[in-house]
Specification:
Length: 253
């Protein structure tokens, strides 16, 4: 079932299901059958153009003041993940939301006097009644040594969100061993991230049933070809189904 992000507050996935919405780039929203909503790395402004000259290839699918969530998770502090120009608006629209962030984000959050919970690899938090977020390591090299990803556990199911990371099998050993059913890998291959073939290979090593590609088609500088990822998946992990999303739309899985 395909859902529109603008109907996020009223649409509810079926029991044991999760609705995954793409905000574009590395931004996602996950909604559970309890109604709880987790937002990850929302980039909704033109911060990257202002700071580093990266122009959007597509418009933001939703305005910051219209995006609602219960939990906001930042994987690291790069401007296309921690959107400093949208942060105040997001917090004003979601004053009760839990903010979870790793160490690289702390200086900004402290500057904003934001209430947040510090996460690091090994952190395990319960959100809602039965959804657990396990923070895992990411390998973003010298660009951001403190970047993280996470594994969601819900209704006997699991989802791995890579954040920005290289395909470092030693670092990702625990993720691979956990055999996540759903994997949301970066595929862009720039700035030390996994490329399309590496992300497909990781899906195979995890034994994932569903792969949702991320981190492409937002900036020309980032790279990433979703068609190449889908083709690589057919070869490197034929048991994994590619779930390609459209910004602003969600799919129940």
């Amino acid at each position: 079932m395909v859902s529109d992000l603008n109907n996020l507050r009223k649409d509810l996935p079926g029991k044991g299901k999760i609705s995954i919405y793409w905000l574009g780039g590395a931004g996602f929203v996950f909604k559970f059958d309890s109604g709880l909503t987790i937002c990850v790395d929302p980039y909704l402004s033109d911060t990257a153009e202002r700071l580093v000259g990266f122009k959007r290839l597509c418009e933001s699918p939703i305005k910051a003041e219209e995006l609602h969530f219960d939990v906001l998770f930042f994987t690291h502090d790069h401007c296309d993940h921690l959107d400093v120009d949208s942060f105040d608006i997001l917090m004003q629209s979601n004053p009760k939301a839990r903010v979870l962030a790793p160490a690289p984000c702390v200086p900004f959050l402290q500057e904003k006097n934001a209430v947040y919970e510090l996460v690091a690899p090994g952190t395990s938090l319960l959100v809602g009644d039965n959804i657990r977020i396990n923070t895992v390591a990411a390998d973003h090299g010298t660009l951001c040594p403190g970047a993280v990803g996470f594994v969601l556990k819900f209704s006997g199911r699991s989802l791995y969100f890579s954040g920005d990371t290289a395909c470092n099998e030693v670092l990702l050993k625990e993720v691979i061993a956990s055999r996540p059913e759903i994997i949301v890998p970066c595929i862009n291959g720039a700035y030390g991230n996994m490329n399309e073939a590496e992300a497909a290979a990781l899906a195979g090593k995890c034994g994932a049933k569903i792969a949702v590609p991320s981190h492409y088609d937002l900036f020309a500088e980032h790279g990433g070809n979703v068609d190449a990822f889908v083709e690589s998946l057919k070869v490197k992990s034929p048991g994994t189904r590619a779930q390609v999303l459209t910004p602003g739309l969600g799919v129940e899985v």
